[in-house]
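User: Run a structure prediction on this.
Assistant: Running it now.
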Amino acid sequence: MSISLNTPFRYTGISQDEADFLTHHYQKRGYRMKKYLNEDMTLWDVLVSLPERRFHRKTPASMLNPLWR
């Protein structure tokens, strides 16, 4: 059973262009996010809720090195 959680991830002190790029791509993928001005009034902070799984999928056998088995 895998439980999907949303974990907040914060980008701090990024430029206007970087913040616009992140907001465009996160909104396109349907993630909830906030963009707000940093304390120094020149840089931006972006806060996004990214999904996190409790258990990851099993690695396919074709991707494993035979020495690791």
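Residues 4-52 form one domain.
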